[in-house]
Design a protein that fits this description.
Blueprint: H1 2-39, H2 45-61, H3 63-68, H4 76-79, H5 84-120, H6 134-156
């Protein structure tokens, strides 16, 4: 159990670095795209597609980190009125009956989704678009795997208030 928690913690900590990379890459790409279109009258389909690739990767690969840091959306209207024990019970039920099964389904179908894209050599339908569409499609099962590991980590340890 301690090993699984260490693995989950290590993966999520490394996700922070990956998330920072995607965020900085997204910002730089948007800046280049906007400056090119605005001042040089040069539009780039590849840059626009790269923007949504970075945005998708950022979102998908940081799901587990967000869940572990308790930074995801909740219905605080009800949560604040419940005791800590009731909130913990809701967390456990939610993880076991909703989050983990959903992660399993997305991972199962997401692997096939990415593998089919890879084997077909899928690329952008745009002639100026990006090749290797399987890279972004691989982020889908990978992101939900990280989220599932975070959920297991939450189930195995008591929830502590984390302000950082």
């Amino acid at each position: 159990m301690a090993t699984l928690k260490r693995i989950a913690s290590g993966i999520v900590e490394n996700t922070v670095y990956l998330g920072r990379f995607f965020l900085i890459a997204l910002m730089v790409t948007i800046i280049f795209d906007v400056i090119g279109r605005r001042f040089f009258n040069v539009g780039s389909v590849a840059l626009q597609e790269l923007e949504w690739h970075f945005h998708g990767g950022l979102f998908l690969l940081c799901l587990g980190f967000t869940y572990l840091k308790d930074a995801h959306v909740r219905v605080d209207l009800f949560r604040d009125k419940f005791s800590e024990r009731t909130n913990r019970l809701i967390e456990i039920v939610g993880c076991l009956f909703f989050l983990l099964p959903y992660c399993t389904v997305v991972i199962y179908f997401g692997i096939d989704f990415a593998a089919n894209s890879f084997s077909a050599g899928e690329m952008s339908p745009n002639t100026e678009g990006l090749p290797y569409r399987w890279i972004i499609k691989t982020c889908l099962p990978l992101g939900f795997l990280l989220l599932g590991i975070a959920a297991v980590s939450i189930l195995l340890s008591p929830r502590e208030a984390d302000d950082g």
